Predict the 3D structure of the following.
Amino acid sequence: MSESPAVHLPLELAGWGVHIPTQRIAVDELLRAEAPRVQAQLGVLSPALRARFEAGHGITCVACLEGDTDAARRQVVTEAIERAALAPGELRFIVDLTALDVSHPGLYCAAQASQAELGAGAALALSVRGAGCAGYHLAFDVARRLLASVEGPAAALLLTADRAPDGGRACLPISWMADGASALVLRKVSPASTGARLRALHVSSVGEFATVLSVSAEPFRVEIDGARFERRVLPMHFVMLSRLLDAALTEVGWSRDSLDALVYPNTTELDRSSLLRVLGLRPELLVGPGPSELGHAFANDIGWGLGALLAEPQRRGRWAVLAAGSGFTWGVALVER
């Protein structure tokens, strides 16, 4: 198990962009279209977990992009850059954290596409993969180290544009997979900085479980080893998040009771309510659109939740951002504004 140290903070969350598709596909329709896949995924689970998932996932439909991800990616990048009002040359790094984009398979890197469109030839374009819905946490970790390596004012653009495969949106018992795009700009804190600040970040991965989720090429599908996920990963799920949250809170001298908002992925209503119960957090802390009419759009859930907070100038306080992603990677970030 590897864990990153909390270094090179704080950083300012200077800009954001979100795209939530307006098109929806009903879960009932997905159940009919993917019946053999659903039965195979649920059939390996224990009767107790299967019953809990079927009764408590709480998702009625999922958000789906029409066409490829290019327009959505351009929208969120433009929004994030404009909101950050970056000075010329300040953008030094572009980090693509896309988990899955069936419209651009292979060697495609969205960071390079955005670099060309922005005319940001001096910015290093790179991609980080393998963290799923903890992708922003991994990208935060990479960006803070990169920003610490350069002198003077500097910013990093983090972006993700995900599109799940049609006919392969079932990823049970994790969730029903959706599409979306989001972007965030991280900037070195200056005396003039007044925005939200990333105060603490703890990321941990257990490479032993990297093959629990995989991707098949023909047809393009996300494959899950449901039995191993239930027996090996689920018992660690809340334990890891609790341990990392406590470490981050201790670092900045906060308590769980002092938190004002919680950003967490749109997995299922069952998972989200269980997280609140296990960690002893108040239900009213949860922000963002939730999974009911969206499904789970990988790390975009985090981008959407942070965007909802950042879009309210009067919203002040202490925010916790938690995620557990494929790989498996767990991440906790603390933000203050």
